[in-house]
Design a protein that fits this description.
The complex is a heterodimer. Chain A contains four helices and eight strands; from the N terminus they run E-E-E-E-H-H-E-E-E-E-H-H. By secondary structure, chain A is an alpha+beta fold. In chain A, strands 1, 2, 3, 4, 5, 6, 7 and 8 form an eight-stranded mixed β-sheet that branches. The longest helix of chain A has 17 residues. Chain A is globular, with a radius of gyration of 16 Å. By secondary structure, chain B is an alpha/beta fold. Chain B contains 22 helices and 19 strands. Chain B has a seven-stranded parallel β-sheet, sandwiched between helices. The N terminus and C terminus of chain B are likely disordered. Classes of the chains: A alpha+beta, B alpha/beta. Chains A and B meet through strand 2, strand 3, strand 4, helix 1 and helix 2 of A and strand 4, helix 3 and helix 4 of B. Strand 3 of chain A pairs antiparallel with strand 4 of chain B, so a sheet runs across the interface.
Chain lengths: 186, 605
């Protein structure tokens, strides 16, 4: 796919109420214009699930459960899926394209993980690899090196995207759209 | 649609098995842990449970063509390059707009803060019903990004609040831009029209404004949207008829008086405009007026109104404007609070103090002056006799009788009719000496042309220019250009009627209000000719008020009205009073006639 026709996904999961999660996937073209938007209905993790999943609950929900369901709905295959929470990196195990956590180094409030915990320290035991990072000013891109070529692909896409898209901005659109959808639901 | 409860859990197609020994499992009752079988291993009873996690339900939206629209339709957020038209070959001739001095052209992107530092979102209006449409708007990039990607150039970078104003107008079919004067309503409107034209959402726009402002709009279009062919409707009926039908010009500009005259003609042509914009929309506040009827009869898809003073006297003013915007949406029986709530999504109001942190300061100096002895003599005589005459009228007295006396007294406060003595003139001369010495420029406002002529006669050294009803409209642009560019011209004498709206005189540092208008909003508009964006320094406003006279009494009433406006538009408090009522007018004098016995108007200003 040529750079001009390339699409990228932006995935964010937010806790809309206590233990209640909504995921949103925004697929943008190279200019940052929306092509598709997919959002989940709120999903509740009950107390037993919290206890039994323990520290793996959020990675499971963000990446495997919600993230995977959203990406599977996408009609346009994204070159890279950008995420705003470390927990969502888990998605890489279930999709064929790179998944990169975006951290704006110029923004001190930038997300370090939805739970506020360094995800690498609580990776599931079955993970052989730990997250790696590259820096493309002003961002740090963190990814699970699940396959050869992820780093190169991420670097290429980010370099092209930066001409027109600020990498953390689309997440704000997703959050607003989720709120909009919830408001429409009454 | 999205209930947040356990019923959202989907069938058990995503199962995590759990093996545990029998006993209490915390939360088991509410987590639907399913007990599937029991077994015994080495004498220990083992319970195997499954933890169901519902497969997420996903709602999907595709935006190939935009929201819920057909995929073949234009994307409203794609600002295509301007298409050349036949009319565009000579836009300046077509619009007869004066030539704009060369201004360094710069793209918005060049001048804006970096995109990631400033994000202005276009948000869906509340009357946009379909979720797909709302999401399509919500998910667009910030307006700064859209502008950066387009070929839309600006002569100079818009301010942040102007970008926000464009984002407000862009998706709306009904909108009232009520920014305080001087914040650039014209630019915001023109730029939004430009974007909507480029994205194919508009093809025909009618802009209606007061007659003196037609050339001002032409100038502003030439500056902010030079590629758009515009046509000022004018000339005899045959010419106007042709102009109304001509589709070569996507933007037509007409004045209110002409609209009243041509409304039948337009109706016969069955024209429907994609957008009708009313500038200085307070002109249609009277729902029974011919102007109101004429503009409300226009066929249109979008209706916008621009005014810095949507409420001049009462909430009825706002009802009048909304009759054009959305007929029947407001009614006069609504309380101010109900009205405020109803219009919240349709009105955008910013004040200079809110948005322009670097706006030049506005300094008010009320010059309370004692009348000269000659003026006192004339004034006391006139008031005494006037009140006696009013009382003699008994039940026949009307508000107009009171008005006549008020005007006579105000004129005496300006100049003594017998000797020409004037405390205000003495003060003005002293002040202007300083203005002239510093090389600055000043505007002097009065409600009377005769007063302005008297002032001019007393200021030969200042070579004042005049801009009022007696100056032919064709000469007015020349007067303004002369005032701006000729360093020998320091003073402009303006009437409130001719010069209080739409003019940009931000190079002036001094404004003198020789007398006061009935309505503080008009006075504010006059002040804001000078106190505008782009002003080079502080603006000093001096109101000349004669002490212990009708002027001081009126000033107190006007201060109350000013407060009323802020209460209705700016905060949630109930307005204390509405307008300058007949009781208030009668209250200016010690009259025996009671308000209930008077056959006059209720609202006068």
């Amino acid at each position: 796919m040529s750079a001009a026709n390339r699409a990228n996904g932006f995935l964010s999961v937010i806790e809309v109420a206590e233990r209640c999660y909504c995921g949103g996937l925004l697929v943008l073209n190279q200019l940052g214009r929306p092509l598709e938007f997919h959002c989940t209905l709120p999903l509740i993790a009950d107390r037993a699930q919290q206890i039994l999943y323990g520290p793996t609950l959020n990675p499971f929900l963000y990446g495997e459960h919600l993230g995977r369901a959203l990406v599977e709905k996408s009609k346009t295959e994204p070159a890279v899926v950008f995420v705003d929470a470390r927990e969502s990196l888990e998605l890489r195990r279930f999709v064929n394209h790179p998944v990169a956590l975006v951290t704006d180094l110029s923004d001190q409030t930038s997300c370090q993980g939805a739970t506020g915990v360094e995800y690498g320290s609580e990776m599931p035991a079955h993970h052989e690899t730990q997250p790696q990072s590259i820096e493309i000013e002003p961002y740090q891109l963190t990814f699970l090196p699940a396959a050869d070529g992820d780093e190169a692909r991420i670097e290429q896409v980010v370099t092209e995207l930066l001409l027109d898209v600020h990498l953390t901005e689309p997440f704000r659109r997703i959050h607003e759209a989720i709120r909009e959808a919830q408001a429409a639901a009454g | 649609m999205y209930p947040i409860n356990d019923s959202n859990c989907m069938p058990n197609d995503n199962v995590a098995p759990l093996h545990t020994t029998a006993g209490h499992i915390p939360g088991a009752s509410e987590s639907r842990i399913q007990s599937n079988w029991f077994s015994t291993v080495g004498g220990v009873e083992v319970v195997t449970l499954r933890l169901p996690f519902a497969k997420p339900r996903v709602r999907s939206f595709c935006f190939n063509g935009g929201g819920s629209q057909q995929t073949s339709g234009p994307n409203p957020f794609e600002f295509a390059a301007a298409k050349p038209t036949h009319a565009q070959a000579a836009p300046a001739a077509a619009s007869s707009a004066p030539v704009i001095p060369a201004i360094a052209t710069a793209t918005a992107a060049d001048n804006q803060a970096p995109v990631h530092h400033k994000e202005t979102r276009i948000r869906p209006p509340r009357d946009m019903i379909k979720l797909a449409d709302r999401l399509f708007v919500t998910l667009q990039p910030p307006l700064e990004s859209l502008l950066k990607q387009s070929t839309v150039d600006f002569p100079f970078p818009p301010f942040e609040h102007q970008i926000a104003g464009i984002a407000f107008l862009f998706p709306r079919h009904v909108a009232l831009l009520a920014d305080e004067m001087g914040l650039g309503k014209t630019m915001q409107c023109i730029t939004t029209i430009r974007l909507l034209l480029r994205s194919g959402q508009l093809r025909s726009v009618l802009l209606v404004c007061p007659k003196p402002l037609v050339t001002n709009w032409q100038r502003e279009f030439a500056m902010w949207a030079p590629e758009i062919p515009i046509c000022a409707i004018q000339g005899d009926q045959a010419k106007r008829s042709w102009q109304w039908l001509n589709v070569e010009f996507p933007v037509k500009i007409a004045n209110y008086e002409l609209m009243t005259r041509d409304s039948r003609l337009i109706a016969q042509q069955q024209r429907e405009f994609d957008l009708v914009v009313l500038d200085e929309a307070q002109r249609i506040k009277n729902r029974h007026g011919a102007t109101h009827q004429a503009v409300c009869s226009l066929g249109r898809k979008r209706s916008w109104a621009l005014t810095g003073t949507p409420v001049e006297n009462s909430t009825h003013d706002l009802v009048g404007i909304f009759e054009f915007l959305s007929t029947g949406y407001l009614n006069v029986d609504m309380t101010p609070l109900q009205m405020r709530k109803a219009v919240r999504d349709y009105i955008l109001r910013r004040t200079k103090s809110e948005v322009m942190k670097d706006m030049p300061p506005l300094l008010h100096r009320d010059g309370l002056l004692d009348l000269t002895s000659q003026q006192w003599s004339s004034y006391e005589q006139a008031e005494t006799q006037g009140v006696i005459q009013l009382n003699q009228l008994g039940d026949q007295i009307t508000i107009h009788h009171v008005f006549e006396l008020v005007l006579r007294l105000k004129q005496i406060c300006n100049f003594d009719p017998v000797t020409g003595a004037s405390a205000k003139m003495e003060r003005l001369q002293a002040e202007l000496e300083e203005v002239l010495a510093s090389g600055q420029k000043a505007i002097v406002f009065s409600q009377w042309v005769k007063t302005l002529e008297q002032i001019a006669h007393r200021l030969p050294e200042a070579q004042p220019l005049a801009f009022h009803g007696k100056i032919p409209p064709k000469q007015r642009d020349h007067v303004l250009a002369e005032f701006q560019h000729n360093p020998q011209r320091h003073v402009l004498l303006m009437s409130y009627g001719a010069g209080s709206v739409g003019l940009n005189l931000q190079f002036c540092r001094y404004v003198f209000l020789f007398d006061q208008w009935w309505n503080p909003a008009v006075e504010d508009q006059a002040i804001n000719r000078a106190h505008r964006i782009g002003g080079s320094g502080s603006v000093t406003v001096t109101r000349l008020i004669s002490k212990e006279t009708i002027e001081e009494r009126i000033n107190r009433v006007l201060e109350d009205k000013r407060e009323l406006f802020h209460q209705i538009i700016s905060n949630t408090e109930h307005p204390r009073r509405i307008g300058m009522s007949k009781e208030e007018i009668f209250g200016l004098f010690d009259l025996r006639a009671g308000g209930q016995r008077i056959n006059g108007l209720t609202d006068v200003a």
